[in-house]
Specification:
heterodimer, A: mainly beta, globular, B: four-stranded antiparallel β-sheet, 11 strands
Chain lengths: 109, 116
């Protein structure tokens, strides 16, 4: 079967750095997405990786290793507004999105 | 108004009621989706419409009935639901048709459904 694993919950301190991991086992691979979802709000697109390596967008970076079936989302200089759930999703060989259950990130002052 | 708008934001219904969820996208996108989001579970794709035609129905019980009257509007009609159907129902849209590439989804804020 197809599976996406990510931690259920993480806690970090304002101003610090946090890494949210995502491992996947899917039928084929056509890219990996990260979405951010604040409580009671719509998920919003953060990043898309299809090639190995690190892509940086301001305070957020996303890394992919296809050979290891692994990705992480790196958040730097954490702010209280970064408290949210982070959803990892993989596009399989049929271009179907396989979703993880999400990681709830709690930022403490 | 821009983006994807869902109404109502909250809905409480009994098991014998009939209600509908509405989704509207103002982005000119060609595909629209219904997802179910339950606590601590992955998003479950329910239905996909591409150019107003249903292209996917993921073994969803018949008590959920979708309708897509045009490319901007999507409905989810609900009847004789069960308490386990209580969840957040998310609507999304994408520029391109599903299965054609790495489509970025634009989501609405969801309709929180409680079935008593």
């Amino acid at each position: 079967g197809q599976n996406i694993d990510q931690p259920t919950e993480m806690t970090a301190t304002e101003g610090a750095i946090v890494q949210i991991n995502c491992t996947y086992q899917t039928s084929g691979f056509n890219g990996l997405f990260w979405y951010q979802q604040h409580a009671g709000e719509a998920p919003t697109f953060l990043s898309y990786n299809v090639l190995d390596g690190l892509e940086e967008k301001g305070r957020f970076s996303s890394f992919l290793s296809r050979s290891k079936g692994y990705s992480y989302l790196l958040l730097k200089e954490l702010q209280m507004k970064d408290s949210a759930s982070y959803l990892c999703a993989v596009l399989d060989s049929n271009y179907q999105l396989i979703w993880g259950a999400g990681t709830k990130l709690i930022i403490k002052p | 108004e821009t983006g994807v708008t869902q109404t109502p934001r909250h809905l409480v219904m009994g098991m014998t009621n009939k209600k509908s969820l509405k989704c509207e996208q103002h982005l000119g996108h060609n595909a629209m989706y219904w997802y179910k989001q339950s606590a601590k579970k992955p998003l479950e794709l329910m239905f996909v419409y591409s150019l107003e035609e249903r292209v996917e129905n993921n073994s969803v019980p018949s008590r959920f009935s979708p309708e897509c009257p045009n490319s901007s509007h999507l409905f989810l009609h609900l009847h004789t639901l069960q308490p386990e159907d209580s969840a957040l129902y998310l609507c999304a849209s994408s520029q391109d048709e599903p299965g054609t590439g790495a489509n970025v989804l634009t989501f609405g804020a969801g309709s929180r459904l409680t079935v008593l």
